[in-house]
Amino acid sequence: MVLKGTVVKFCTTLPGPAIGDYNLIAHDKRVDDLFELLSAYGKGSRYFNLDEVLIAGTNTDPMHEYDRLTGNLALTIHGRKILDQITNPKTREEAYRTINKELKALVESIIRALSRQFIFGNFSSQSRRFIADLSPFYKLEDKNLGVNHY
Q1: Under 8 Å CB-to-CB from 62, ≥6 apart: which residues?
Q2: Are residues 51 and 58 in contact, defined by beta-carbon separation less than 8 angstroms?
Q3: Separation in Å, CA 114 to CA 60, 74, 106
Q4: Which of 55, 84, 102, 119 has its CA 20 to 30 A from that of 130?
Q5: Contact in structure between 95 and 86 (CB atoms under 8 Å)
Q6: Is the pLDDT of residue 73 over 70?
Q7: Tell me, what's the pLDDT at 41?
Q8: What is the dihedral of CA 19, 143, 145, 80, to 10 degrees?
Q9: Dihedral sign computed on CA atoms, order 62, 68, 73, 78
Q10: Is it the case that residue 143 has pLDDT exceeding 90?
Q11: Per-residue pLDDT tens over the stretch 87-119
Q12: DSSP run (H or E) holding 87
C-alpha cells in the first residue's frame, strides 16, 4: 500500500487528545481498507468505464470495493446479526443508517487524525498555515463523530 506507507512515514505519536492518532493511522485494519479503496479509486475511477471497454475489465470497481468496505465494517462492529437486519425489510433502513453513521465516524476520525498530524506533526512548518481550514476536523470531539452534516 503505497498511499498508506507514504502517509505513515510522516506520522508521529502526538501528546494529549491526539495520542491514539498514530495507532489509528498506522495499525487499524479498517484504515488499511479505506486507504486501499482510496488508492484504487484514485488509480482507476477517472477512466474506469473507458478502461473496462478497452482493457477488458482489468480494473476493480470502486463502488464494489466501497460496498465490501462497508460490509466488512458492519460485520466487525455488529457481527452476523447485521446481515439479518439488512435482509429484513422492517429493519433494513435502520441497519443501513447505522452502518452509514459508523462509516462516517470512521472517516471523520481518520480525517481528524490526519489533520492533527498535518498541523502538529512532522509534515512541514508550512502546514500550520492551513490550521483555519482544518480547524473543524482537528477539533472534532469523539461524541460528534458520525453526526455532522456536510
Answers
A1: 37, 40, 41, 44, 45, 48
A2: yes
A3: 26, 23, 12
A4: 102
A5: yes
A6: yes
A7: 67
A8: 100
A9: positive
A10: yes
A11: 899 999 998 888 888 889 999 999 999 999 888
A12: helix 81-87
Q: Do residues 116 and 14 make contact, with C-beta atoms less than 8 angstroms apart?
A: yes
CA-CA distance, 89 to 127, in Å (whole number)? 48
pLDDT reading at 6 higher than 90: no
Residue type, 17: P
Q: What is the mean pLDDT of the chain?
A: 82
pLDDT of res. 61: 67
Instruction: Calculate the alpha carbon distances from 102 to 33, 37, 147 in Å.
Output: 15, 17, 9
d(CA 70, CA 116): 25
In single-letter form, the type of residue at position 139 comes to K
Which cell numbers in the block locate residue 95? 441497519
SS3 state at 56 = coil
Cell of 149: 452534516
